[in-house]
Amino acid sequence: xxxxxNDIEELLYFSQRDFDEGGEFKAWVFKxxxxxxxxxxxxxxxxxxxxxxxxxxxxxxxxRSKEFYCNTCETxxxxxxxxxxxxxxxxxxxxxxxxxxxxxxHCKEQLEAQIPWKKKGKSIIxxxxxxxxxxxxxxxx
Length: 141
Ligand SMILES: [Zn+2]
Ligand SMILES: [Zn+2]
Ligand SMILES: [Zn+2]
Known about the structure:
Blueprint: E1 11-18, E2 24-30, E3 41-42, E4 46-48, E5 58-60, E6 68-70, E7 75-77, E8 79-82, E9 88-90, E10 97-103, E11 110-116, E12 124-127, E13 134-137
Antiparallel strand pairs: 1-2, 2-10, 3-8, 4-5, 5-6, 6-7, 8-9, 10-11, 12-13
The structure holds zinc ion (3 copies).
């Protein structure tokens, strides 16, 4: 059984819709824990420590944005920032897993799966754990 979220605050991502092939799914990704202080990593950050240059110049592009920008590296960062110690981590280094509860459009079973969470804007394609049928989650940009 997958761990279900109690609160939206525990999550980096939540979505409920249909696969391209049909069939409903519910998908969620929990905020990972900081390896240094044990607090949660998320999208809050202002003058946070950049995972590339180590300077405290990582900030969000805007209050609602989920993207960071480092003023020292002068590049956009696909990062998460610790809510405890304010350290930035590269999202690709964190091995984030997406939890999916779904109804397969091929075998019609209700199933659960865990798959790696990819970058935004890239479709996630995986095989049904029961029938091997192809399932596509189109991610919004
Ligand atoms: Zn930097
Ligand atoms: Zn921390
Ligand atoms: Zn199936």
